[in-house]
Model the fold of this input.
Amino acid sequence: MTHEIAVIPGDGIGQEVTPAAVDVLEQLPVDFEFVYGEAGDAVLEDRGEALPEETREIAADADATLFGAAGETAADVILPLRSVVNSFANVRPARAYPGLDAVQPDTDLVFIRENTEGVYAGIESEITDGVTTCTRVITEEASRDIAEFGFEYATENGFEDVTIAHKANVMRTTDGLFLDVAQQVGDERGADYDTALMDALAMHLIQRPEDYGVVICPNLAGDMLSDLAAGLVGGLGLLPSANIGPDNALFEPVHGSAPDIAGEGVANPAAMILSAAMLLDHLGYGEEGDRVREAVEGVLDEGPRTPDLGGDASTEDVTDAIIDRL
Ligand code: ATP
Done:
């Protein structure tokens, strides 16, 4: 069976790390057809729009999308792309790797973030001069979807600890609903879980990340807590993510276009290649996904390493070393 993969490298180091991930996927015994789409700052300049209709269509029609990064136009590119694939779940693993300087070497967390509502629903207004509001949307349906996804993810990936993050003591109606529904889902599944106030959780994640596994979060909390966890494991060049929808999904590194190093050939390809490993898992190739992760881990541990990790290797050197291990 051939899987059609939309490849959208975008701007800056997206142009360098996305081909690295495609090179890695091409080594595997899986039949892929890669279809390329353009998006980002350079396309806006050339064609007057950051996300041309044909790129949307390529992403909508593909079995999965690999996206690199967008620069100034990020909001005009990635938000619509995530909605093209109807992604309700944002999966953000934050894991410390052997051999690298992590603040907390025992970190192995996965944030399952609701990706469609909360304060990111985009309902803001200026009521009068100097007075603005933002409407926080929490629905039973979206809360149920993300909780089901989070508990299922924990089971499938062997995580024992599931935590539901919330702030229902203050946002009683909205997070009250999120918490009730997520607990109902956990109870229906006979799962063990904890609940945690998101502010206290931020502190505990820093002090004792080893006590946590899968963390199910409303939208903004998931965004912030997962970035906080990124700081525990040694930086942006290492963090992959997935945006999962019912029939389609998009995989991207957490980092952006890194204009400060773009074009130098020294970007760390690990986050993008680990995103490709998540794509493999999603398409049912968990064994191949594990092989890719093991190869990346081996290279992170023993080198070569790019300058962000203290080495002097290029993107290509690191990609070749990962391919050699595969
Ligand atoms: P953007 O506006 O596109 O988000 P940015 O520079 O604000 O770009 P990032 O691209 O995430 O944000 O980069 C933040 C810092 O991390 C930069 O110094 C960048 O060089 C570094 N960085 C990000 N990703 C990588 C990577 N894959 N390899 C090496 N360094 C990286």
